[in-house]
Design brief:
The complex is a heterodimer of chains A (168) and B (284). In chain A, 73% of the residues lie in helices and 0% in strands. Chain A is built from six helices and no strands. Helices cover 37% and strands 27% of the residues of chain B. Chain B is rod-shaped, with a radius of gyration of 48 Å. Mean pLDDT of chain B is 82; it is low at 1-6. Classes of the chains: A mainly alpha (168), B alpha+beta (284). The A-B interface holds A 11, 14-15, 17-19, 21-23, 47-48, 51, 55, 58-60, 62-64, 66-71, 73-74, 77-78, 81, 84, 116, 120-121, 164-168 and B 6-11, 13-14, 17-18, 21-22, 24-26, 28-29, 34-35, 37-39, 41-42, 45-46, 49, 52-53, 55-57, 60.
Chain lengths: 168, 284
């Protein structure tokens, strides 16, 4: 059931991605729906599931964007692992906690991408700091709104809310 | 055993996954074109999820079409209203221009016509027309202040209208040639036979005093003879429509006036030279 919900979320994220690409080209430079999905899933604290979710969501994003194939999968997996690991220890709940995780995840995601692009392509991302700031703000606002609505109207807890052992 | 180990060793899984992804990225980054679908893996992911962007594209395209269709329709409706408004304005302007053109043509012909007289002429506008009763008259908007006098001839481009019988300071009454009491010295254009044209009070006129043997035929044009001291010579009066043998020595001739009295607008007043009263009354 939790995977089904993840797939639905992934389809919604992809739909959003396609819509933004169609009507507002380059909108994904300011907003990343896949990170919201991965963080939302990873808030459950299941590290194993979070890694898989990060890989899948990242690969889907890679498939439909012009980046190196695997770039977003890599960064998203790192984010998912960190969020899931933190939640397996602290059991963070609530919109603010989600916002904090999401903000951190966006920053980590962008930093990982920045480093990988530097290593693999020997390129610098133009206006990285400004882009990071804008992307963090917009993704944070939208993600917190979605999370708040989900918990308010659907009484939805993060997917895989039942904590499972981190297994260190 | 493995299924129990992997969940309990997520860090190991993370390292494996990241290593595999790094290799995948390294391979991808070496290809010539980054955005191109290169690997079987990437193609597979794209194929699995391709219905989503396609559906979004289709829905977006449909919505876009509907929206633009609606906008186009609104624009067309507004344009249609605007064009209708313009047509109404243009039609009104066109009517005005036609009217002006018609006025211009008429005034030009009047002007050209008036220039053939050696006497002073002036233009006037018919402001009242009474052709319904037995006494046919028309009121014009020029009077004694404009030099109009009794017995001035009044014509238009088509021919003789009548003579001035009364003047005020700024108006004048004109007796039409179709009036029962109007007499005009006339001659036929072709055979130059003279006579007197009198109105019959019913919109036509009769030519009197033409001998029974005179060469006068239907279709002959009748002009003013210039012998009555009122009308200059050569103004068209009408066309003979009937020339029958009368009961006595004269013919019965019916004349149809060349002027359409029901549509008189502008007229020319010819200020004829009046014969002094003593000369008229003088009897040797």
């Amino acid at each position: 059931m939790r995977w089904l919900r993840f797939i639905v979320g992934l389809l919604i994220a992809l739909t959003l991605h396609s819509l933004l690409d169609s009507f507002f080209p380059n909108a994904l430079a300011f907003f990343n729906p896949y990170v919201i999905l991965v963080v939302y899933y990873s808030m459950g604290g299941n590290v194993f599931g979070a890694i898989i979710a990060g890989v899948v969501a990242g690969l889907v994003q890679d498939s439909f964007s012009g980046a190196i194939f695997g770039l977003h999968a890599f960064s998203m997996t790192v984010c998912a692992y960190i969020v899931a690991y933190v939640n397996s220890r602290l059991e963070l709940r609530g919109t603010l906690a989600f916002g904090a995780c999401l903000g951190g995840a966006v920053i980590v995601n962008e930093l990982v991408i920045y480093i990988l692009v530097n290593i693999l392509l020997k390129q610098r991302i133009e206006m990285f700091e400004q882009g990071l700031l804008v992307k963090t703000i917009f993704t944070l606002l939208f993600g917190m709104l979605v999370y708040h609505l989900l918990t308010l109207f659907l009484r939805e807890e993060p997917i895989e809310a039942t904590k499972r052992p981190a297994g260190w | 055993m493995a299924t129990e180990v992997i969940p309990r060793r997520p860090t190991l899984l993370l390292i494996v996954v990241l290593s595999l992804l790094f290799v995948l990225m390294s391979l991808s980054s070496r290809t010539a074109y980054i955005g191109q679908t290169r690997t079987l893996f990437e193609r597979t992911v794209m194929t699995v999820f391709s219905p989503v962007p396609k559906a979004v594209n289709w829905v977006g395209g449909s919505v876009d079409d509907m929206y633009h269709g609606y906008l186009d329709m609104r624009r067309a409706v507004n344009e249609n209203l605007e064009l209708k408004r313009k047509i109404a304005t243009t039609t009104a302007e066109n009517l005005k221009l036609r009217q002006s053109e018609s006025d211009l043509r008429r005034l030009r012909s009047l002007l050209g016509y008036s220039e053939q007289f050696n006497m002073n002429t002036s233009l006037a506008q018919a402001i009242m027309l009474d052709t319904s009763g037995r006494f046919k008259s028309v009121i014009i908007d020029r009077g004694s202040a404009a030099g109009v006098e009794v017995n001035d001839a009044v014509v238009n481009a088509n021919g003789l209208i009548g003579r001035v019988i009364l003047t005020t300071n700024d108006l004048a009454k004109v007796q039409l040639v179709t009036d029962n009491n109007c007499s005009v010295g006339a001659l036929t254009e072709r055979s130059r036979r003279q006579g007197v044209v009198r109105g019959d009070g019913a919109g036509g006129a009769q030519m009197h005093d033409v001998g029974a043997l005179a060469d006068v035929l239907p279709g002959d044009r009748v002009l003013t003879a210039g012998i009555d001291g009122v009308y200059p010579k050569g103004i068209p009066i009408g066309v003979i429509t009937r020339a029958a043998q009368g009961a006595n020595l004269f013919k019965q001739i019916t004349v149809k006036p060349t002027v359409d009295f029901s549509s008189i607008e502008e007229v020319i007043i010819i200020h004829t030279r009046k014969i002094p009263e003593p000369v008229v009354r003088y009897t040797p």
